[in-house]
Please model this.
Amino acid sequence: MKLRLLVLGAALAAGGAFAAPRGLTVEDLATMERVGSPVLSPDATRVLYTVRTTDMGKNRGHTDLWMLDLRTPNAAPKRLTSADASSSDPEWSPAGDAIYFMSQSQVWRMPAAGGAAAKVTDLPVDVDNFRLSPQGDRIALSLAVFRDCADLACTAKRLDDKSKVKASGRVYDRLFVRHWDTWSDLRNNVLYSAPIDASGKVSAAPISLSGTLDGDVPSKPFGDHDEYHFSPDGKTIVFAARIAGKTESWSTNFDLYSVPAAGGTPQNLSAENKAWDSKPIYSPDGRTIAYIAMDRPGFEADRFHFMLIDVATGKKRKLADNWDRSVADFRWTPDGKALLATADDVGQHRLFSIDAQSGKVTPLTGKGYVGGFDIAGDTIVVSQASLTSGAQLYKRSVGSDAMTQLTNVNAQALADVRMGEPEQFSFKGAKGETVYGHVMKPWNAQPGQKYPVAFLVHGGPQGSFGNSWSYRWNPQVYAGAGYATVFIDFHGSTGYGQKFTDAISGDWGGAPLEDLKKGLAAAGAKYPWLDTGNACALGASYGGFMMNWIEGNWSNGFKCIVNHDGVFDNRAMYYSTEELWFNEWENGGSYFAAPQKHEKFNPVSLVNKWKTPMLVIHGEKDFRIPLSQGLGAFTALQRQGVESKLLVFPDENHWVLKPANSVLWHHTVIDWLDGHLKTPK
Model:
């Protein structure tokens, strides 16, 4: 009721009355304000967060810092930054009197009470991320440098010299040569530390902490400052790193290291585990380090479980080992008695409390997707989204189940939007096991009517298409265009136990396809408003692989297909992708060692059965599933006379991120669906 009143108030303020209801549009999605993760002040009286806005004219997003005073009920959020450059990654000073943040690739500081921001760092190279020490007298920084350079000026000079060389060739003698969307320039992310002087600035040259290790801190391409932390006394930093060497592109062996914050030799804390160890955090009393670990080398979707290290003895123990969920993010509670953690859980992404002694797990949130959270004192603030709402901030107290909504961004912009109604369902899938999925009605659904279906298949493949909000694959866009949607968490999805996740490895085209077939049939039988005979299938990454696999194995199931960045030929994929560990685990070895396993579910082998119209979409900067995979699928379709279109983005990677490109992507996809599922006007 409270949320409805807030929306009503926004609508009345905008125009005095509700406009006629409508569905969510592509333009709505592209221009929505996006709330970031909360950062609580040390005394829990204020919370920082970011809000990203979109400038369609400049074709870019812009991020600013905001603050909300929790001491005043219904306090208006205060915007802290408004410069042309974005501001992000805020941290509080230990006393809560200042805010540190990233802007223009350097660290800045501003008074919490208001006032001009000043540079903390002014280095000759970019700062990628940072973390402030608990005492506020030192800062840890990650910088991309050439390891053989003696100082930062050397790296800056070498980059400048390279920019002036007319020859464009690159020479490599080991993998990675490129990663995600970037060719290697032979720099590494190195962790540095520097004291903050009396003026509040870094004036001394930063000291390398991880430079002796051949690896990146944090990891590429998505690592951040969650991979390193100070000890409570500020004297030690613990971090995660993978030793690169020649094996980096087929290794998931990340280890934990500790190093004196003022400089020294890193000490390996987890050498015995050849799988992934990450996100080490000291307990508030400094006696224990909690981290997450996997058990199986080479498997990126193994279960991340808790490990605890006794700092004094080095002894390790597992925590909550019987909890069959994979930890995504976590924090210690201030009293050190528990860990708060997020994890996928049966179509939700929930926040849990784990007792640090017994391992007892207690859920703290219910339905929805907790994308970020923080705790200070007895106050917890979470960023939570769902299938019907982008992320908003909510507050709760330790020991209470009551949640208070703190933000309501987009209320005015979406005041007249009626969201499609989602519902979770389950059915007996492959192996007779219970499988879950969701359906969503069109925004304007009427009793007794049937609606064409957009059948969405998630990527990963070890992921979940659950109760969350996406700015790339959002069922509400299809609901807003008059479509019903169905999406299934097939075998291999996360949040249903590790055995269920493991089931897809070596079986990409087996049980998952059976789940999709049975799931669509079960949805059609349960929900009479679904016109499953008038459907198109859509998917990206693994979902794109499944679109190519459906072409050869379920060709009578759909009237059209949308394949975004999908695998077309497993052989070519193995020899051109970058993270080889993924293909080797999923297919039981390297291609040259186990070619028959890679060929078992290879879409290219069945192109002579392709007949369903397909829209192929690919980003030229996609190095995970290279452009040749999309071109191969389009060539197979065109050469056989199958109706097809190709949409290529020269400036996008595996994801479509630029606002104008996102709008083009969505309109092209919806037009493709309209042309095959709706009666021509």
